[in-house]
Amino acid sequence: MEATLFTSTPPSPALSLTRPANPFLSLPSPPHSRRLRLPTIRSAISRTKKEETVETIKTNLDNCHLLAGISYKGLTVKQFQDLRKALPDSTKLIVAKNTLVYKAIEGTPWEALKPCMTGMNAWLFVHSEEIPPAIKPYRDFQKERKLENNDFTGAVFEGKFYGPGDFKALETMPTRLEIYAKLLGSLKGPASNVVGTIQAPARELVMTLQAYVQKLEESGGGQ
């Protein structure tokens, strides 16, 4: 009997209906793919400008005898220009934010100016011992332009804070010339006048003696 051989064909693999991913179109996302923000040029310039302002304030504090705040809200550019022209060479007017000014004066005797750190301030640096002549130009400017709301917000002189109501004491301080005249008058008068001059505050006495010595040197009497 003839044998019949049956051969079995191996089953075909199942067809996949899903489209294979294109490795060039779908790349795996790296971990922490959040984009990092780098400082912008504008913010860098702003930070540099702030640092320069702080340094400018610190520079003007050198040889500064009085630092005062002035409320400048509402003043025009033209008024600022006119004001700067009216001020003596011994003064410097700077417009700066309160935060930058405080950063410059923090930890120094000028920190007593802290009560002024509100509102919009321009800052008057007086580089002279003659305080009344340095303040008077702004007072005149204020009266002429009727700027009652743009008053001094405060000042620091010799480490002491002067509020807006205390400025009369600063504006009526004797000048060097007045002290010198007072000394000459006392030297020509009775001894009691000399004693009265010597008993004056130490600052006035020092200023008086300096003026007297200078006068002697100019006239040749100190040789």
Outline of the structure:
The chain has 223 residues and is of the alpha+beta class. Helix content is 43%, strand content 12%. The protein has 8 helices and 5 strands.
Q: How would you describe what is shown here?
A:
- The chain is 43% helix and 12% strand.
- With 223 residues, the protein is α+β, with helices and mostly antiparallel strands.
- A five-stranded antiparallel β-sheet has the order 2-3-1-4-5, covered by helices on one side.
- Strand 4 (152-157) and strand 5 form a beta hairpin.
- The longest helix has 21 residues, at 41-61.
What structural category characterises the helix and strand content? alpha+beta
Mean pLDDT: 78
Report the strand count.
5
Distance between the termini: 158 Å
Q: Output the strand order for the largest sheet.
A: 2-3-1-4-5
Question: For the CA atoms, what is the radius of gyration?
Answer: 38 Å
What is the helix/strand order? Answer: HEHEHEHEEHHHH
- Binned, the helix content reads 40-55%
Uncertain runs are 1-7
Number of helices: 8
Shape: globular
Q: Mind summarizing the main beta sheet?
A: 5 strands, antiparallel
Strand content: 5-15%
